[in-house]
Specification:
Blueprint lengths: L1 H7 L5 E5 L4 H12 L3 E6 L2 H13 L3 E6 L5 H15 L4 E4 L14 H28 L5 E5 L12 H21 L5 E7 L13 H9 L13 H8 L10 E4 L9
Parallel strand pairs: 1-2, 1-4, 2-3, 4-5, 5-6, 6-7
Helix pairs in contact: 2-3, 2-8, 4-5, 5-6
Length: 258
């Protein structure tokens, strides 16, 4: 067990999970806490945060909730300052907030386009700036995990604006990985396949479900806890030489689309 602890233990680390009140990032937060990290859930829904923190506590982990405006540089600076004041340091950042819409392309209004880009792309850009500067200035060997999407890699979901935002997240992650590798800051993208979550339930029509199952060798949707292994790999010493990668967890979906 000491061997596994050396590889995967996050004891003494603090992980900020933006979007940690959601289904997928919430489960990722639990896995980080179980591995020993103090987890900071960042989101908008305190009720969901309380429920997730209760789950973390029951598993023997620790964490707390901070509501924050992630589309504001000042809001992100305030978030980071509160984390540092409370926990002493931040070592792991998960950028997982996101919104979606199935609006047909020719009907997408500009305000919807702007809102999706503000949450899915601009917020990731600003968060990486604010936290990245903190990591560099303090010489912290950090791990940044940005949440990508299969639709950011393959044009498949008819969620046009969402797909554009996620493609941008994939691109900035690779660029930052190259830029910050010499600073011992690893930047990777975790790419879930099809996992039922708040973002996509409204677009998962029976027809779409049939199509997805037909292109997924494992013939099922993913379970949120099946992101835990990839999360711990990217966050821990086990992934110390992994940066600039897209870690796909999809039941084989991508292999059927090549």
């Amino acid at each position: 067990m000491s061997y596994l602890d050396d590889l995967f233990s996050l004891s003494g680390k603090t992980a900020v999970v933006i979007g940690g009140t959601g289904e997928l990032c919430g489960e990722m937060a639990v896995s980080l806490a179980k591995a020993g990290a103090e987890v900071v859930l960042v989101g908008r829904n305190q009720e969901k945060a309380v429920a997730r923190l209760s789950q973390i506590s029951s598993a023997g982990g620790s964490g707390y909730f901070i509501p924050a405006d992630i589309t504001s540089r000042d809001g992100l600076k305030a978030l980071l300052a509160e984390v540092v004041e409370t926990s002493g340091q931040c070592d792991i950042l998960v950028n997982g907030a996101g919104i979606n819409s199935p609006t047909p392309f020719l009907e997408i209004p500009e305000d919807e386009y702007d809102q999706i880009f503000a949450i899915n792309t601009r917020a990731v850009f600003l968060t990486c700036q604010v936290f990245g500067k903190y990591f560099i200035d303090n010489g912290i060997a950090a791990s940044i995990i940005n949440m990508g999407s299969m639709s950011g890699l393959i044009p498949l979901s008819r969620v046009f604006t969402y797909s554009m935002t996620k493609a941008a997240v994939h691109n900035i992650s690779r660029n930052l990985a190259r830029e910050w590798a010499t600073q011992n800051i690893r930047v990777n993208t975790l790419v879930p396949g099809f996992f039922p979550a708040e973002q996509n339930r409204k677009v998962l029509t029976p027809e779409r479900v049939e199509q997805i199952m037909g292109h997924t060798p494992m013939k099922r949707f993913g379970k949120s806890e099946e992101l835990s292994g990839a999360t711990l790999l990217l966050a821990s010493n086990a992934g110390s030489f992994i940066t600039g990668q897209e870690i796909v967890v999809d039941g084989g979906f991508a292999s059927m689309t090549i």
